[in-house]
Every structure is written in C-alpha cells, then in structure tokens.
Amino acid sequence: MKIINLIKSVTVAATLVISSFSFAADIDVNANANDLAIHGYDAVSYFTDSKASKGNHKYTATYKSAIYQFSNEENRELFQDNPEKFAPQFGGFCAMGVALNKKLDADPTAWKIVDDKLYLNLNKAVQKKWLSDVPTHLDTANRVWSGIQGVSIAQLDAE
After folding, report:
1. Residue 110: CB partners within 8 Å, gap ≥ 6?
2. What total number of domains does the chain contain?
3. 15 in a domain, yes or no?
4. How much of the chain is in helix, strand and coil states, percent to nearest 5?
5. For 36, left (φ over 0), alpha (ψ -120 to 50), or beta?
6. Integer distance in angstroms from the first to the last C-alpha of the chain?
7. Is residue 148 part of a domain?
8. Is it the case that residue 54 has pLDDT exceeding 80?
9. Average pLDDT of the segment spanning 127-141
10. How far is C-alpha 38 from the geometric centre of its chain's CA atoms?
11. Residues near 63 by Cβ (< 8 Å), separated by ≥ 6?
12. Which residue from 21, 66, 68, 87 puts its CA 20 to 30 A from 3's CA?
C-alpha cells in the first residue's frame, strides 16, 4: 500500500511539474519567468484611471497562460468578466516590435489605448515612433501578428 501511495504521489508531482512547464511556455503572451504579465501592472487601470498602476499579488487572475495582477478586487473582477477587453494587444509584446516582425518586451509605462484596446511599447522612444503613425503601424502589426503569434522569440531572432 505504501508503494502504491508513493507511486501516486510521484505521478501527481510529475504531472504538476510538466503542466507548470507548459504553462510557462506559452509563446503568445509576454510574461516573465513566473508567468507574470505586464510586469505586474494592472491591465484595468489603464482604462479606468488612465494610468499605469502596479498590481498587487493579492489580486490576481489568469488569462491565456499568464498571471495578471490588479491594484484592487474591483479591477480583478472587471478583468475576469471580460479579459479580452483589458488584456494588452499582441499578447503584451511591444506593438511597434510586432509591426517589425519581432516579439519584444514592453515597458508598462509606455502605453496607449487606441479604439478601446491597450497597446504597449518597448520604451518611451519606441512609443514615440509608434505614435508618429499609429494607423499604419497598427495595420502592419495586425497583419504581422497572425504570422508570428505562435512563433517563439528564439525562432524569430534566428530568421
């Protein structure tokens, strides 16, 4: 009986390890090694407060294999009710980078809401370029994203 329980425990542990690897390996969302999206910033605050606000580990939700943090319970509930409305476009990768066929990290303070969608950029300098012609860059990024969405950063860099 002890051997059977041990085998069951090992099987459960192995399953958890494997599932955590697959969770972290989602290549369609820009998340850190701990699966944290937007560097822990509150995705809802961009819309409700018109600013980038740090989230709190007490208020989290999971969406597309990433963990989002929120500054309060109300924002978490808003996100859970409609994550597609609040989650950043292009999986949280830099919107200008996507237009250039790249998956680049994003600075949560370099953001813009366009047509009720959140876009992030690598930094303020890249954001300035993005803002110089948002319609054209957005059109290009939307077209490019469908081709790179399921491609890893390493694969894109190797091209």
Report:
1. 120, 121, 122, 123, 124, 126, 127
2. 1
3. no
4. 50, 20, 30
5. beta
6. 54
7. yes
8. yes
9. 98
10. 6
11. 37, 79, 83, 87
12. 21
Identify the burial level of 7 via C-beta atoms within 10 angstroms of its C-beta, where 0-12 means exposed, 13-18 middle and 19 or more buried.
Answer: exposed
Q: What is the chain's alpha carbon radius of gyration, rounded to the nearest angstrom?
A: 18
Backbone angles phi, psi at 117, to 5 degrees: -130, 140
The CA-based angle 116-119-68, given to 5 degrees, is 95
User: Does the pLDDT at position 43 exceed 90?
Assistant: yes
Q: How confident is the model at residue 17 (pLDDT cuts 50, 70, 90)?
A: very low
d(CA 60, CA 146): 28
Residue 38 lies in a domain: no
Q: 140 lies in a domain?
A: yes
Q: Are 75 and 45 contacting, i.e. CB atoms less than 8 angstroms apart?
A: yes
Q: What is the pLDDT of residues 60-73, one digit of tens each?
A: 999 998 999 999 99
Burial of 72 (0-12, 13-18, 19+ CB in 10 A): middle
Question: Residue 80 phi/psi, 5° resolution?
Answer: -60, -30
For residue 134, what are the domain limits? 90-159
